[in-house]
Amino acid sequence: MPKPRNIFSHLSIEMAARASKCDRKRAHHVDAGEYYLAVKARNSTKTYCQHCAREILSSAGNQLSELRTLLERGPNLLFAGLYRDGVPAPLSKKEPPQAAARRVGRLLD
Ligand SMILES: [Zn+2]
Q1: Distance in Å, CA 97 to ligand 1 centroid
Q2: What is the pTM of this model?
Q3: Average pLDDT over residues 29-38
Q4: How far is the CA of 55 from the centre of ligand 1 (A)?
């Protein structure tokens, strides 16, 4: 059986060769010798300090959990309008995506 595709191949934890700024919050720093989250795109690499990396990975974990739930219970959730394009559907344009995710998450618990 073929190995499952690695959908995280553009992510890695790397050790900084030199000091740099965090790409999420410019006030954050990554010191030389410190580990950081590297997110590689075609022509660039984004650097995230450990604080931001924890938040990004935590959010990604929640998104994975929601995708797993959607995969298992998808047709009902799609029918109920809880998800649109694979993400929790906001009730209105004013509802931030994080709030929609929390609301939909509570309904599924
Ligand atoms: Zn940061």
Answers
A1: 21
A2: 0.68
A3: 97
A4: 9
- The encoded tokens of residue 11 equal 């992510």
Domain ranges, residue 56: 11-108
Q: Give the distance (Å) from ligand 1 centre to CA of residue 37.
A: 10
With a CB cutoff of 8 Å and minimum separation 6, the contacts of 59 are none
Q: Identify which has the larger pLDDT, 107 or 44.
A: 44
- Give residue-wise pLDDT tens across range 84-99: 777 788 878 888 888 8
Instruction: For ligand 1, an ion, list residues with CB under 5 A.
Output: 22, 24-25, 28, 49, 52
Higher-pLDDT residue of 17, 83:
17
Has residue 3 been placed in a domain?
no
* Among 71, 63, 84, 109, CA closest to 92: 84
6 inside domain = no
Ligand 1 center–CA 98 separation, angstroms: 19
